[in-house]
Specification:
This protein is α/β, with parallel strands linked by helices. It has 14 helices and eleven strands. The protein has helices spanning 13-22, 34-47, 59-68, 84-87, 92-97, 113-121, 150-162, 174-181, 185-188, 223-229, 238-248, 252-272, 294-302, 337-345; strands at 52-56, 75-80, 100-104, 132-139, 167-171, 196-200, 210-214, 278-279, 287-293, 308-309, 324-330. A seven-stranded mixed sheet has the order 1-7-6-5-4-2-3, with helices on both faces. The protein is globular and about 60 Å long. The structure holds pyridoxal-5'-phosphate (PLP).
Length: 349
């Protein structure tokens, strides 16, 4: 009953086997092997256009270096107030890009387009004392399990484009969002005006495989140097490529995300039907937030369930009663129906 995070799960067997296959041979280093090239070409097929792809090891590196690639002195990147880049990356995006992050509020973990426009307007291009707007970043799926619809991405994108700002997407849970929307990778990204994507594989069955994807290769020109200086150019880059090769084969990545979203649906249904617990807010990806009795949380922990208690949002303290707690449950490709049902049985009052 591991619901603490999707990165607590191991690696999918097919990806492990793909790595093993690759482990005995020799191949050119630093991203120049035939396999690296082939997997880069696979990204182009998946996104239905020419792309520039850079493999890195962590989601934090993917976000930080993506944002560094578009920065100018005094730069400001706008993100949601609960975004991973501003809350959970120890200032790495600021460190690597020498830019600041400015938080924009919005319901359901999503940037409010009107508030974004107002924030950007607060940094006119000639106001040297305040700094200047240089990028916008959104997270898909969001940190609280919600998913931007295609029209919601359009609304953010339109504002970014009006101000000539590149739009970055943190896709640590890209596949979960894609499956939840039933969209194609192209529809959820460049067709909506996304310029740069942090494409996550680790949370969805890889060992550690993340990629930075540029939809306009012109914008990627500095990235080879940015990545090297950030110590993210792996000599044995082919082992990241091999993970993605296994990940994409026969659409494994979509099947895995479909499974973890399905397990989250099962949790959502069970919690909604319970007489002692309730969903804290609606989610559609592989994260579920629930308000449960403290006594049930204790029982679940005693039975071996792993999950995090989550801070109650300051705007809605009434969400959680004095004998209750807010928890986050994250499903993964490795979650089983027995795990879900085992957790739900702890909620029986
Ligand atoms: C939305 C989001 N972005 C980025 C990351 C960063 O990933 P990593 O821990 O690999 O740096 C995470 C990890 O939890 C995440 O949830």
């Amino acid at each position: 009953m591991f619901f603490a995070s999707d990165n607590w799960a191991g690696a999918h067997r097919s990806i492990a086997e793909r790595l093993l296959q690759e482990s005995t041979g020799f191949a050119a280093a630093y991203g120049t092997s035939e396999l690296d090239r082939r997997v880069e070409a696979r990204f182009a097929e998946i996104f239905e256009r020419e792309v520039s792809v850079f493999f890195v090891a962590t989601g934090t590196a993917a976000n930080s270096l993506s944002l560094a690639s578009v920065q100018r002195p005094g730069g400001i990147t706008f993100c949601h107030s609960e975004a991973h880049v501003i809350e959970d990356e120890c200032g790495a995006p600021d460190f690597f890009s020498s830019a600041r992050l400015v938080a924009v509020p919005g319901e359901a973990g999503k940037i409010d387009p009107d508030k974004l426009a107002k924030k950007i307007a607060g940094f006119p291009a000639d106001a040297v004392h305040h700094g200047r707007a240089t990028a916008v970043t959104i997270t898909q799926a969001t940190e609280i399990g919600t998913v931007y619809s295609l029209s919601e991405i359009d609304a953010i994108s339109a504002i970014a484009k009006q101000s000539n700002l590149p739009l970055h997407m943190d896709g640590a849970r890209f596949a979960n969002a894609l499956v939840a929307l039933g969209a194609t990778p192209a529809e959820m990204t460049w067709k909506r005006g996304v310029d740069i994507l942090s494409f996550g594989g680790t949370k969805n069955g890889c060992w550690c495989a993340e990629a930075i994807v540029f939809f306009n290769p012109e914008q990627a020109k500095e990235m080879p140097f940015i990545r090297k200086r950030a110590a993210q150019l792996f000599s044995k880059s082919r082992f990241i490529a091999a993970q993605f090769d296994g990940y994409f084969e026969n659409n494994l990545w979509l099947d895995l995300a479909g499974h973890s979203n399905g397990m989250a649906d099962r949790l959502r249904a069970g919690i909604s039907g319970s007489n002692s617990a309730r969903l804290a807010w609606a989610t559609t990806s592989n994260e579920v937030f629930a308000v449960i009795p403290r006594s049930a949380a204790k029982v679940a922990e005693e039975r071996g369930a792993k999950f995090y208690e989550w801070p109650v949002p300051t705007a809605t303290p009434e969400l959680v009663g004095s004998e209750e707690t807010l928890i986050r449950l994250v499903t993964s490709f490795a979650t089983t129906e027995a795990d879900v049902d085992g957790f739900l049985s702890c909620l029986v009052a």
